[in-house]
Design a protein that fits this description.
- The protein is of the alpha/beta class.
- Helices cover 54% and strands 13% of the residues.
- It is built from twelve helices and nine strands.
- The strands form two sheets. A seven-stranded parallel β-sheet has the order 3-2-1-4-6-7-8, with helices on both faces. Strands 5-9 form a two-stranded antiparallel sheet.
- The longest helix is centred in the N-terminal third of the chain and has 36 residues.
- The protein starts with a helix and ends with a strand.
């Protein structure tokens, strides 16, 4: 029977190594890439991927942050969102600050299939090297699924799921033909486990995670990269309800500012297939994955139950 103990030790070591690799690579890689970024010259995204970066939900928040980061790295920028005034203002700021070309496309992704013909007409003639699928819809307050209006449920699915899928379907063929390109799909830390009182949103973000990881393998032979980003709480319009609910408390104080978040997430572009974007979010993800799923569900249920109040969804673009 003594031979069982070495086998159990090997199994334990194997499981530990797998867990460490899968869950700590994000915070460790962010530290390593952050150091390299200060030592190495600016990366030439334009030469590696193509001339244009397309960012959805680009008028504020993480989308605007990615637009500025990629413009700083000499990419021309296509900004897509539903608010033309905000888009134009952001486009002018980026063009003036970074001396790159910008293009504004107004689209409300909650309208569904009707918008994609127009987007295809504008995007397909361009040398699109990077696509950032950031546009998203979240709850205005944590609530039970049946408390959402029917329109809110459709918006959560149409914006969070359909937009990612259809834009990839639109732009992947030209990327494959050119044999270069990068797709960055923004999921969420809530995809780490089922999230009661944020049920539809977290389920949609699981779709984005699984879709992105599978698509990456499909596109690998064609030299097109796909990165999945799983942010925790970042200080944007989408998380305003958290700041308002816990104003002056520790939760609100630990919301990561967009510029800090995108600076770290930008380090990982083209380097890793999955990232939480910020080192503390990586540690949170690793902590959630360390415990059984029932405990993860309990933790998220407790967090979002404390944020429960009535009323719909919050659009971010």
């Amino acid at each position: 029977m003594l031979f069982i103990y070495p086998i159990l030790a090997l199994i334990g070591a194997y499981c530990s190594i797998c867990w460490l690799y899968d869950n700590l690579r994000t915070p460790i890689s962010l530290v390593v890439y952050g150091l390299l970024e200060t030592l190495l010259p600016k990366r030439k995204f334009r030469a590696k991927y193509g001339e244009w970066a397309v960012i959805t939900g680009a008028s504020d928040g993480i989308g605007k942050g990615y637009a500025e980061y990629l413009a700083q790295n000499h990419m021309d920028i296509v900004l897509i969102a539903r608010n033309e005034e905000k888009l134009t203002r952001v486009a002018n700021e980026i063009s003036k600050k970074y001396s790159v070309r910008t293009k504004v496309l107004v689209a409300d992704f909650s309208e569904g299939p009707t918008i994609y013909d127009h987007l295809a007409k504008e995007l397909l003639p361009l040398d699109v090297g990077i696509l950032v699928n950031n546009v998203g819809v979240s709850y205005e307050r944590a609530m039970c699924m049946d408390e959402l209006s029917k329109k809110s449920v459709w918006d959560l699915l149409t914006v969070n799921v359909a937009s990612v899928t259809m834009l990839c379907h639109m732009l992947v063929p030209s990327m494959k033909q050119r044999r270069r390109g990068l797709i960055v799909n923004i999921s969420s830390l809530s995809a780490a486990a089922p999230a009661p009182y944020l049920t539809v949103y977290s389920a949609a973000k699981v779709y984005v995670r699984n879709f992105s990881m599978a698509l990456r393998e499909e596109l690998r032979p064609h030299h097109v990269q796909v990165q999945t980003v799983l942010p925790g709480f970042v200080e944007t319009n989408m998380t305003a309800f958290v700041a308002n609910e816990y104003k002056g408390q520790q939760v609100a104080k630990h919301l990561v500012q967009v510029e800090h978040y995108v600076r770290y997430a930008g380090f990982t572009i083209g380097k890793t297939d999955r990232t939480c974007g910020y080192w503390t979010h990586g540690l949170q993800y690793a902590g959630l994955k360390l415990v059984p799923e029932c405990i993860r569900i309990f933790v998220l249920k407790t967090i979002y139950n404390n944020l429960r109040k009535p009323h719909g969804v919050h659009k971010v673009d």
